[in-house]
Task: inverse folding
């Protein structure tokens, strides 16, 4: 079983991914811009800036996530997870901009910044990411309704409860596969292969 968890920054993707994996015994297939930034020896925001100019960073990231998911049985939790892989269950996590900024204000890259500054950074990042995903893959992350099977407002539930809801949903999988989502995942994989030469 493959469970894909998506949502904007600060919605709780990483926490939910780890909690669901722990509760289900599934492998975690998570590789994010934070991981790539560490590998490249740069800060998260430096990588964000570079990714605006150089498409290769998105392709490296997304290709790695697809490869991890294709190994089977896993939980993958990234912004594009619901579009990126042919999952059995696709979950969208939601939280308001204010709440997301509050959560992200304690992250290492935001230490010393005011909540207002973090809020502006998150808003800017959301917009820039949306533009990139549209340009690279034709994906509109604001239009997730046709792609996801489950929507959770993470402001209303504790992290453990969010995981419990996802695990419960994984036991009652949709009767039919989401063909539209599967087509999008296939198309994205083809784009990445073309752009990277299959390497």
Result:
């Amino acid at each position: 079983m493959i469970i894909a968890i998506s949502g904007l920054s600060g919605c709780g993707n990483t926490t939910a991914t780890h909690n669901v994996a722990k509760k289900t015994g599934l492998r975690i297939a998570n590789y994010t811009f934070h991981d790539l930034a560490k590998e490249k020896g740069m800060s998260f925001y430096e990588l964000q800036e570079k990714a605006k100019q150089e498409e290769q960073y998105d392709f490296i990231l997304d290709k790695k996530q697809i490869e991890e998911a294709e190994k089977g049985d896993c939980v993958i939790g990234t912004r594009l997870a619901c579009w990126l892989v042919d999952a059995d269950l696709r979950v969208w996590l939601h939280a308001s901009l204010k709440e997301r900024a509050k959560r992200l204000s304690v992250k290492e890259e935001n230490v010393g910044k005011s909540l207002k500054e973090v809020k502006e950074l998150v808003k800017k990042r959301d917009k820039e990411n949306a533009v990139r995903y549209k340009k690279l893959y034709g994906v509109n992350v604001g239009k997730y309704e046709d792609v996801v099977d489950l929507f959770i407002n993470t402001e209303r539930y504790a992290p453990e409860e969010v995981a419990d809801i996802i695990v419960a949903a994984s036991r009652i999988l949709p009767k039919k596969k989401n063909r539209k989502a599967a087509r999008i995942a296939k198309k994205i994989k083809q784009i990445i292969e073309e752009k990277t030469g299959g390497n």
